[in-house]
Amino acid sequence: MDWKIISKQIDTAELSQTDHQPIYLVYVRDDVGNNIEAKEAYGINHRTEVTKEFIHKYESQGIVKIEHEE
User: Fold this and answer.
1) Tens place of pLDDT for every residue, the chain, 70 residues?
2) Closest CA to 23 of 8, 7, 6, 42
3) pTM of the model
């Protein structure tokens, strides 16, 4: 199977006047193009955690690509 994990920035959170954090949607897409599961991630570190969680959860499905759209 050729499943993918994809993330894209969907918004920016304003933590203070000078501190902003990107909000990402991280999702798993199957080889037919159906989105299987999605989660919001707050910042790069959280996006990495969510991506690793999905890799672990869906490793038996044959994840072949991880795409981070900026």
Assistant:
1) 789 999 999 999 998 988 999 999 999 999 999 999 999 999 999 999 999 999 999 999 989 999 998 7
2) 42
3) 0.89
